[in-house]
Amino acid sequence: MNKQSKEVKKSDLMSLENYSKNRTRLRKELIIFKKNRRISVGPYATFYFECYETMLAQIQEMLFIEKGGDNQLKDELKAYNPLIPKGKDLVTTLMFEIDNPLSRTEFLNKVGGIENKAFIKINDDKICSTPETDVDRTSEDGKASSVQFIHFNFSEAQIENFKNLNNKVFLGIDHELYHHMAEINEKTRKDLIKDFN
Q: Mean pLDDT of successive 10-residue segments in the chain (197 residues)?
């Protein structure tokens, strides 16, 4: 395991055969692991905080589904390793989950640039989102993607303030058409604090 180096390597992965045998158990364990790393903000937005373990599982699953071997592995490592926190940031997959396809399209058509409007607030200090730059997730005509990858980069002082459980910490979105905030509870805070190590 390369948790200290903050990246997944080929040597961390199970063989397809071994993963196939253990897949059901591993996926159940992952659901439990991810439980405290999920935060809903408003009616449509859900933030999933990523880490080494979630990205290892994602890469393993993609290889299992597509069976693309070493060629695929290079692409998966390139895509998912940037989503592992590097010690001074938190990384989320932000998903807009709207069951009705028409309502989803209507909403996403209006919220272009929303990936730049997420924040973590510690007392009066706001840490603004930095979207992953692999692709532009708002189209030229202003439509937002339903899936966004976002980094929150912290200073040393902000990390210490996040770790201090006496401080209130909120996760929010401050878009003119989607303005919502949720407190990050203590269980989730304790899980996310590990991402700073």
A: 70 93 95 95 97 95 89 91 94 95 94 94 96 71 88 97 96 96 96 92
d(CA 115, CA 135): 12
CA 181, CA 184: separation in Å to the nearest integer? 10
What's the 3-state SS for the chain? CCHHHCCCCHHHCCCHHHHHHHHHHHHHHHHHHHHHHEEEECCCEEEEEECHHHHHHHHHHHHHHHCCHHHHHHHHHHHHHHHCCCCCEEEEEEEECCCCHHHHHHHHHHCCCHHHCEEEEECCEEEEEEECCCCCCECCCCCECCEEEEEEECCHHHHHHHHCCCCCEEEEEEECCEEEEEECCHHHHHHHHHHHC
∠ CA 5-6-11, rounded to 5°:
70
Q: What length is written for the chain?
A: 197
Burial of 127 (0-12, 13-18, 19+ CB in 10 A): buried
Bridging pattern class, strands 38-41 and 45-50: antiparallel
> pTM for the complete prediction?
0.91
CA atoms within 13 A on the CB side of 185: 9
